[in-house]
Amino acid sequence: MDKIAVKMTVNGNTVEELVEPRMLLIHFLREQLNLTGPHIGCETSHCGACTVDLDGRSVKSCTIFACQADGGDVLTIEGVKGADGGLHPLQEGFMMEHGLQCGFCTPGMITRAHRLLQENPNPSEAEIRAGISGNLCRCTGYQNIVKAVRYAAERMNAQQEAAE
Amino acid sequence: MIPGPFEYYRPGSVDEVIALLGKFGDDGRVIAGGHSLIPMMKLRLAVPEHLIDLRDVGGLNGISEDGDTIVIGAMTTQAEVLASDLLAAKCPIIPEAATLIADPQVRYFGTMGGNVANGDPGNDMPALMQCLDASYVLQGPNGERTVSARDFYEAAYFTRRGDDELLTAIRVPTPADGHGSAYEKLKRKTGDYATAAAAVVLGMAGGTCTAASIALTNVGDTPLYAEAAGAALVGSTLDEAAVGAAVAAAKAITAPASDLHGPAEYRTYVAGVMVRRAIERAHARATG
Amino acid sequence: MNDAAELTVEEREATLGGIGSARKRKEDARFIRGQGNFVDDVKLPGMVFGDFVRSPYAHAKIKSIDTSAALAVPGVAAVVTAKDLEPLGLHWMPTLAGDVAAVLADKKVHFQNQEVAFVVGVDRYAVADGILAVEVEYEDLPVLVDPKKALDKDAPILREDVVDKDTVGQGPRRHPNHIFTWEVGDADATEAAFAGAAVTVKEDILYPRSHPSPMETCGCVASMDATNGVLTVYGTFQAPHVIRTVVSLITGLAESKIRIISPDVGGGFGNKVGAYPGYICAAAASIVTGLPVKWIESRMDNLSATAFARDYHMTGELAADADGKITAVRATVLADHGAFNTHAQPMKWPAGFFNIVTGSYDIPVGHVKVDGVYTNKAPGGVAYRCSFRVTEAAYLIERLIDALAQKTGIDKAEIRFKNFVQPEQFPYDSSLGWEYDSGDYPAALKKALAAVDYDGLRKEQAEKAAKGELMGIGIATFTEIVGAGPTRNCDIVGLGMFDSCEIRVHPTGSAIVRLGTKSQGQGHETTFAQIVATEIGLPSEDIVVEEGDTDTAPYGLGTYGSRSTPVAGAAAAVAARKIKAKAQKIAAHLLEVGEDDLEWEVDRFKVKGLPEKAATMKEIAMAAYSNIPEGMEHGLETTSYYDPPNFTYPFGAYICVVDIDRFTGEIKVRSFYALDDCGTRINPMVIEGQVHGGLTEAFAISMGQELVFDEMGNILGASLQDYFIPTAVETPEWETDFTVTPSPHHPIGAKGVGESPNVGGVPAFTNAVVDAFAQHGVTHMPMPHTTWRVWQTIDELGLNK
Description:
The complex is a heterotrimer of chains A (164), B (288) and C (801).
Chain A: E1 4-10, E2 13-19, H1 25-32, E3 51-54, E4 57-60, E5 73-75, H2 89-96, H3 106-119, H4 125-131, H5 143-163
Parallel strand pairs in A: 1-5
Antiparallel strand pairs in A: 1-2, 3-4, 3-5
Helix pairs in contact in A: 2-5
Chain B: E1 7-9, H1 14-24, E2 28-31, H2 37-42, E3 50-53, E4 63-66, E5 69-73, H3 78-83, H4 85-90, H5 93-99, H6 104-109, H7 112-117, H8 125-131, E6 135-140, E7 143-148, H9 149-152, E8 153-155, E9 158-159, E10 166-173, E11 180-186, E12 196-205, E13 208-217, E14 224-225, H10 227-233, H11 240-252, H12 264-285
Helix pairs in contact in B: 10-11, 11-12
Chain C: H1 2-5, H2 9-16, H3 28-31, E1 48-54, E2 60-66, H4 68-71, E3 76-80, H5 82-85, E4 92-94, E5 100-102, E6 108-109, E7 115-121, H6 124-133, E8 135-140, E9 178-185, H7 187-195, E10 199-210, E11 219-225, E12 230-235, H8 240-251, E13 258-261, H9 277-289, E14 293-296, H10 299-305, E15 308-320, E16 326-336, E17 366-373, E18 380-381, H11 390-408, H12 412-419, E19 428-429, E20 435-436, H13 441-452, H14 454-466, E21 470-479, E22 491-492, E23 495-496, E24 499-505, E25 511-515, H15 524-536, E26 543-547, H16 564-591, E27 598-601, E28 604-607, E29 610-616, H17 617-626, E30 637-642, E31 651-660, E32 667-677, H18 684-703, E33 708-709, E34 715-716, E35 735-738, H19 756-773, H20 787-797
Parallel strand pairs in C: 1-14, 12-13, 15-18, 16-17, 25-26, 32-35
Antiparallel strand pairs in C: 1-7, 2-6, 2-8, 3-7, 4-5, 9-17, 10-15, 11-12, 11-14, 15-16, 19-20, 21-31, 22-23, 24-25, 24-30, 27-28, 28-29, 31-32, 33-34
């Protein structure tokens, strides 16, 4: 099986690699680029643990080939940071509100919430629940995850207002 | 978890796609959003040796009006459907159903073309298209043709599309101003396939139903256009007798599988409940 | 130290972040950055990948295995079958329940998706191709999936390998498909009570088969260092030391040459206690190839081949007097264990602690009989926050007491008050053999009823019922048993179920703590630091907690069944107190007073009557390495192995309100109030999180989870397409509350809480659903309460007209 060249930016860095066409993006990230933040929790595209951001869209990276992301711009949890390089308000929120326990769903959950807050900077609880319905968690029961996202939304909106 | 090996192509035009489909026959598949195909490939239920990516093919995107028809490009994602002001204003049942498909991540990539083309009886858009009397534009080596959604589905995963044809657009007759519509879907959880779902589009004038169209999802091996059910509403005030007749007519054409969603008799029963609730909501939304 | 002296006692306590503090978690720092170290993140130089060829048949002979095509697939290095493992004695392995289980199917397969061959290759892509190329010829055999038929005279014989054995490690057996019979209580006295009872109720209650499905599936990286003869295995192990001992026993490698590391584990819930074929095959492949071998299972493998939960077919009965006071309980259970008995429970308890079935009630006599049988299904049974079959027992008794309430016409709360063990009866000896340590059940239920306005809800229910609307109120007042356990009756493969804690305090006043438990999300790095912080007066922020590496952690039996706080938490307190005792001697030396002249206050020893004369633990720590009294050894460290004198008995009162759509059968959980009493509360934030998670699992179990088999033994619904894992949209909001009834025998009075919400949640949900139909005489409805099952009840009763 001949490999093909793919080129994309990942967390702001340009990467050029050779991949089998059938290589899934999640394996490309985890195995070839050693970005083990996004995780694999199923093989039927349900759990969302593999969620990354591609060209401004949340995607389950287990359901897309690396070659389909050629020319694209990928953000994984490793690239999620605050404006000052410290913690992003979402990361702070997950810690402050106990939005994680085992930590396995957390990278996908935070990466998805990151895009959700760009879609909707002030989501209601119901909108948050719908917004993370592609991410499964077994430990938290979601209640504190919702609080974590609200925490981040409030911080970010306050920062936005302060900046204006 | 791991798909079989394949060669990957990224053509830039419909003609190139058709040429590749012609060349590879059964061994070639197009990939749109990939969120139906790739899961099947990972389970090796689909093992195309040649994968033709549509992402760079021109002319497959966008939602526009062409006279009294809304044209939806096959590569339009569900997320784009949800963001469309045109659909929100002129054909809200489509974004209503899109909200009920899968989850946010899948909606960013899953396409309208993908949802209507592969003949999966669990998909939501086919019944909607039948309800709206939409038609599909197919392009093949012999040119372009249009097939009505109501004629398109033959059996589970079997459609009127030839192996060498590409579905490029969906043409939806713009529903009348003041129409009412609703998509009512019973499911086990968010993002699941329907246990039973009903799409209703109707028009009212002076309290009387002037037009009605009803279609059902996942209670047969294809979407089901419930012609008699819709007819039972026309000319009525949507009183209990008419609604009851419509529900009965809809249930009569169902042939659901007994599976983990429930036994067949339950699915038929709730199909009826979905029809009733969709009629009620569509009625409430109709003006006239 | 002047700075410290100026803080008030309260401020100093707050600085400690000790017991009772809702402090944020230390482990979060890496997880929120995606820097966790889970097994699939582990990469070793030269590492290869392995995965299984699995049987499509539930019961079949293996006629042949042809590996030649697979070996020709590019990137495939080896294909291992039972024949290859046989010379190493590894084709079968002993289970934690005294049986044996196949590592790779040896001559026949016993359940669908059983492991048949292990393909090793350069990466998971090559291995996936290799697996498809292995050709196995099967001859199918008659399948047994109905446990009720397992003991029929003409039932197919499943376990030919033990057909001549009159025991498989759990007492005498009477049929080739029989595993054990376990009886406890007084059968005759119970029968007499039933014979003379004014009222009896009897229900057949199935607790269906489900699966804990943690977000991370099982896996390992096994690496044999041939030079030094050391086998290192990273793996998803809830009990790393037990795995090390078992691996030593089955491979013959010295335990000192085996290192087991549980790195970060993405949820366990009992799924990751036992040893799976993947671990053995990876280790064997590494030994043979000299390369590290990684095995990571898929979700479908996880759901269909690893330890399932429940599958208890129960018949429960209560006898009572005319006032609803229970006089006896009787339970017979048919336990479907699958093809091998791999039950992960203390070995003397083949049905776990099911005899907690007296629940929160003072029942004078009872009898329990459990029969375990083999079927053509994956092995397991103990998993999913079950506390060793406590979920099953609690479900049974809470369902029965509701049935008794309905039969007698007594309100479901009132009948519980009538039957509770009263506070003054503790420690309470139950008629089925447990000594409950402490509890105040009436206070808990009173608080719960007031919080939900129970009377108002009943009134509303009656009003709705008059209009044909279905509303249900479910109460569950559960008592459960955790903290396995006293070594006199709790062991796993002979290892007593003590646990351990090692504390080492550094000269500059911080410390490292290592325990024999292993967190999979319960926050041990935070909570155990909090226990030690309060005991020795150093900030929890400066106390590092490590678990999971058998090279460094003291021996322990791992984390499951809510045993960490009761056992290892106790060890931590005892070890800390030993530290404090030595510290007191050092303080006396520093302050030039007698030990008895000192009293402890938060973080220092003060001289009685001379409060300015004090030595903080920080100062003492430095002194332990620089200025010790005559005759004392340097250092400030100790290890404690704690053998609990008893189990602990957390309890709770849960109230669930549901509204049911009578046309679709959909259930909407309107509210769920959960009051938990886990004794002393170490970190309220962590407790709340545990309760949220457990209630969500209980919701999933009661409302949608089941693993179904057709008559050919095909498992249906073993993927996330069908297996119900609720999203944030379906999951209800949880209201949590608490009371505190410390455990009198535990050093800090803590009981453990992880299992409770699953134990109490499932009966609360089912009780609510049945309660909605109680007015129509319905006394039980089987789980899960899928819309179609609920609809069947509605339709039969004609409530949807």
